[in-house]
Amino acid sequence: MSVDWFSQLQKARKKCIVQNNLKRIHFELDDNREMVEEYDLNTNVVTRRAWRINRQLKGENSWEIEIGDPEPSYDSDNKYIIRENSNQPFITRRNTRINLEWRIRNLPYPIEVYSVLVDKELSALIVQTTNKKYYKKIIVPDLQRLCIELEQENVSFSHRFNTLIITYKKPRRLIDFEKALLEEIKKIKPEDSEEILKNCKIS
Amino acid sequence: MAVAAAAKIAEVRETTRVERIGAHSHIRGLGLDDSLEARHVSQGMVGQVSARRAVGIVLQMVRDGRIAGRAVLLAGQPGTGKTAIATALAAALGYDTPFTSMAGSEIYSLEMSKTEALTQAIRKSIGVRIKEESEIIEGEVVEVQIERPATGVGTKVGKLILKTTDMETVYDLGGKMIDSILKEKVQSGDVITIDKATGKITRLGRSFARARDYDATGQQTRFVQCPEGELQKRREVVHTVTLHEIDVINSRTHGFLALFSGDTGEIKPEVREQINGKVAEWREEGKAEIIPGVLFIDEVHMLDIECFSFLNRALENEMAPIVIMATNRGITKIRGTNYKSPHGIPLDLLDRTIIVPTTPYDEKELKEILSIRCEEEDCQMSDNALTVLTRISKETSLRYGMQLIMTSSLIARKRKAHEVDVEDIKRAYQLFFDEGRSVQFLKEYQQEFMFNEMEGEDKMDVN
């Protein structure tokens, strides 16, 4: 998949709608994978990115959120088998124009406890605590797709309101790529969202 | 790695198995050597050399998995080891190859048609090995908290704290998970993996850190290192499901919950067609592998003419398993008709089968089987007693002889003997009638039983 991500996206079948200052683009890649990106039209930054996961055995397909908040799930109280307790740490991702950002909420420990290191072998960021309470391997798909190596000097982190915020400065190549992609996206003519909603079958 | 994991699971399963001794529980395999030649006494099998060799060749055919829809008929008198051979085949195939065992009369049900029952049995015998990435949680149990509401009714609330060497997390447990944690007796210090989607728990062992908790531990206790890194991992697991299971999961009306309740009802042909297509697609993409298994139909003469013609057709499908049938009938009526046919099976189906005959055991073999059974039932028997028992089995039946093992051993225990002696066998022989003596008894005292006016004309019709 690392071959040439940009040309893969260029070749993908794209559909696009604009709704409330948000532009959603649906990519259908050659290998049948599906991706949706959501751009804020004011800042031109990706606010959400999600991948469709096809389960083999069971019919239900779901979305895996790469960037942005996870889909809220309703009525999950009765159905779950096992899940993390609601006051356990959880991680979300967001992008800004110059940074990739991760927020890990529900981490009450002081700033001295944490370390965020680049593991080049795994090509991932490793979040560790000295009190052995939290450990997380963060994979950075944006960089992986472009075959850019992680660099320790781009990493910084801060801690506020029980939240650990990790920022990774976007490398030059990623910024260039995103610019080029944005130009590509501007070419797609948005479909009328009202029209789509009318044709949408309500199951 | 997958093989090692499978072995691990098998080992854990072994220790928790409830041991009960069934009629064929002494059988561990077909008792063949590498060139598929039958050893005279091996893996619990005795004699029947040519039949076992024949089934060994069938086994090879199943393992190769290239030939679909063949039928094998085991034909022989009662008590000549037909079911034993089928059980042995199942044991030899290993647990990854589907083996469905059913009795001919099982297909008659009010809930589904005969052909539906047969189709389900056939589809239960075809396995699909699928690679799927699944999310698992692997860690050492720090604490399990399960609380029942004080009123005694309502849902239980459960929490599970797991850790690795690097982190610790609190999990909320759903109702199903609480039950399986209680059932598996998970306690702090255990190292477990949980499949996040299905909630299946696998116990890997106890943590080394807890090795000194108790002075005495069971023999089977295995100590393992506490896992490292993240609790939640993605792992590619290979699992084998049968076509029937996929059918049930995908049949909208029931959903996968039906798998647990057992009530699957009838499945629409469209669903099956769709699944066949899907499986073929996976196979082409190299995602799945088809493992044709074995369908064993005992007492096959209990099927009727419709089922036989259905089987004829079903065997021609390229997804069909190897069908092994067993019967103890000679030339008799085909159920549902007035025609007579060998083994009660229509000639066109017989033509498609290869027939493996079993023959009655001779005295030496009987003795061998009885001594194996003695061992299986944990019963010491003197040589003389065994000879007497062999003689009894020869004159009555092997099954009756086997019944006497446990009864006479209980009698021997009553008189505090370590060994079953001729006396005990005699006592048991007097206490319990075999079929022959029972008939004799009935003939003698016919007059004193109820409804004795019926004079022998109405013979029992089992067809």
UniProtKB/TrEMBL annotation, chain A:
Domain of life (superkingdom):
Eukaryota
What's a Pfam family in this record? Answer: DPCD
**Which InterPro entries would you find in this protein's record?**
DPCD
UniProt record similarity statement: Belongs to the DPCD family.
Q: What is this protein called?
A: Protein DPCD
What is the protein's species of origin?
A: Sitophilus oryzae (Rice weevil)
Q: Which gene encodes it?
A: LOC115883197
UniProtKB/TrEMBL annotation, chain B:
Domain of life here? Eukaryota
Task: Provide the top EC class.
Answer: hydrolase
Keywords (A to Z) from UniProt: ATP-binding, Chromatin regulator, DNA damage, DNA repair, Helicase, Hydrolase, Nucleotide-binding, Nucleus, Repressor, Transcription, Transcription regulation
> SMART domains recorded for this chain?
AAA
Q: Name one GO biological process term.
A: regulation of cell population proliferation
Report the EC number(s), separated by commas if there are several. Answer: 3.6.4.12
One Pfam family here = TIP49
One Gene Ontology cellular component annotation held by this UniProt entry: nucleus
Query: Which SUPFAM superfamilies does the annotation name?
Result: P-loop containing nucleoside triphosphate hydrolases
Q: Which reaction does it catalyse?
A: ATP + H2O = ADP + phosphate + H(+)
Q: Which residues form the AAA+ ATPase domain?
A: 68-360
User: Gene3D superfamilies this protein is in?
Assistant: 1.10.8.60, P-loop containing nucleotide triphosphate hydrolases, RuvB-like helicase, domain II
* Function statement: Proposed core component of the chromatin remodeling Ino80 complex which is involved in transcriptional regulation, DNA replication and probably DNA repair.
* Listed name of the protein: RuvB-like helicase
Task: Report the source organism.
Answer: Sitophilus oryzae
Name the gene that codes for it.
LOC115885024
